[in-house]
């Protein structure tokens, strides 16, 4: 048997092509919130597409959602990054 059987090659390719997603930044999330929050840019950045689309149609839930995000963005970023709460 060859040292590089098909199953070994498949495992090697799977491992070499796996790339970790970069961590999201709280600073970037706040910048997007400040400048484009009413259209949900910070929610798109965090991968929350459904919530972001709802922001577009309601202008950030008429500002209430934006106010909530002002205080909860760090927690949302930690959840997306998979880091424990501080």
TrEMBL record:
InterPro entries reported for this sequence: TM2, TM2D1-3-like
Entry superkingdom: Bacteria
Alphabetical UniProt keywords: Membrane, Transmembrane, Transmembrane helix
Domain TM2: residue ranges: 23-71
GO cellular component: membrane
Membrane topology designation: Multi-pass membrane protein
Membrane-spanning intervals of the chain: 29-46, 52-71
Compartment(s): Membrane
One protein family per Pfam: TM2
UniProt protein name: TM2 domain-containing protein
């Amino acid at each position: 048997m060859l040292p590089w059987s098909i199953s070994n090659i498949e495992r090697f390719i799977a491992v070499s092509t796996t790339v970790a997603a970069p961590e999201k930044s709280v600073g970037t999330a706040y910048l997007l919130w400040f400048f484009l929050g009413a259209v949900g840019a910070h929610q798109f950045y965090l991968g929350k597409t459904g919530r972001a689309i709802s922001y577009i149609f309601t202008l950030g839930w008429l500002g209430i959602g934006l106010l909530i995000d002002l205080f909860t963005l760090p927690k949302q970023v930690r959840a997306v990054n998979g880091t424990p709460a501080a």
